[in-house]
Amino acid sequence: MTSLQISPNTISQPLNLRRQFSSNLDQRVRLINGRRPVMACLSLDVEAPDTALKSGSVKSKEIIETEAKVLVGTYARTPVVLASGKGCKLYDAEGREYLDLSSGIAVNALGHGDEDWLKAVVEQANTLTHVSNVYYSIPQVELAERLVGSSFADRVFFTNSGTEANEAAIKFARKFQRHNHPDAKEPATNFISFTNSFHGRTMGALALTSKEHYRSPFEPVMPGVIFAEYGNIEATRKLIQPGKTAAVFVEPIQGEGGIYSATKEFLQFLRTACDEAGALLVFDEVQCGLGRTGYLWAHEAFGVFPDIMTLAKPLAGGLPIGAALVTERVASAIAFGDHGSTFAGAPLVCNAALAVLNKISNPNFLESVSTKGLYFKHTLNQKLGGNPHVTEIRGFGLIIGVELDVPASPLVDACRSAGLLVLTAGKGNVVRLVPPLIISEQELDRAAEILYQALPVLDEKKSN
Hints:
Elements lengths: L4 E2 L53 H11 L11 E5 L2 E4 L4 E4 L2 H4 L8 H11 L12 H12 L5 E5 L2 H19 L9 E5 L8 H5 L4 H4 L9 E4 L4 H5 L7 E6 L2 E2 L5 E2 L2 H14 L2 E5 L23 E4 L10 E5 L1 H4 L15 H14 L2 H22 L5 E7 L2 E6 L4 H9 L2 E2 L1 E3 L4 E4 L7 H14 L1 H8 L1
Helix pairs in contact: 3-11, 4-11, 12-14
């Protein structure tokens, strides 16, 4: 029997969007002057979906079979076809309801169909969607101003995803070293990353990601990355070297890695060591930032501030966006043409992000996340703590991991069958709980009860 550990906090602490699929859809769209009409409406009825979609819609089995024929096989998808959502609920193509504690992998912070987010998207889509970065656009500048005003940063570079934000940080760090040491024959180009880290799947960010099975099929990846043990000060001290280390990349709380938190002591050490070595400190808050911990930025709880912070997942509430926030010292090294993106910072996504940021940055909203996080951990401890397979419950705010002594997939599958969507993390033995930040205590109670009722499946799988 394994004893349970409850980790103390290291941080103080109905809209119907149902979509119907039909093979003869195009035949039923009336053409106007030879073109299909574009319609947008802010007056949307609030209702729960029907128990089943109307006859003629494509059912889940057909969608799954078609997907296997037309999409590159990069995803081992869960066999659920999601068709609509509202709040913290999702509905599949047959109208079955699920309580969503995955949030599109920590993306849908405001849940599904938030009215203010929807209003921002529709109004901006009716005004201006995309112009490229050849021109100025108002929502991009307004969003950058809000991000700067609510963080350590002086300037922002927008991207389309978290991995792109980390690629930007890689380039900025190398350019910073060249700019600051123009006479050096070989300016610092190496990077320090950590065990259990995940920074993305593009070639630079992939090189910073510790899991070998992500990197090995694509080697050689970007050279010059050294991995240290997450949280080990002495081991890391030996690796951060003046003239060699361009930057240190670290997640204040590791999501994909298993919901592990850094300590204040560790982050303070990294800040000092980087300053002494002339290296930049980069905080990857793609998953843990923007209110998920109960703080707007996860690092705020530690009182340690980076030179660069990368963001993405929840920023635009489900639309693709990323950002690298930097100090003026870093920005001064970047010149016209050093980096760019066609789609990044487009008016549509930036206006959506403004709606998200305005809500999440409200102190009362952040306080509610902290309160619900503590409540959820307490409830999980009561419900799951006595099970011998549960070895630790950790996290804070609404990023929580339940570590098991067996693979978590059977439990995840059983939860899904009971109407609860959760994720795995770590080595596949951690249940990752990242619900929308708007979730209620009643919904958290329901989630904990479903997890509790599903636990016996672990014994069934182990005996087999």
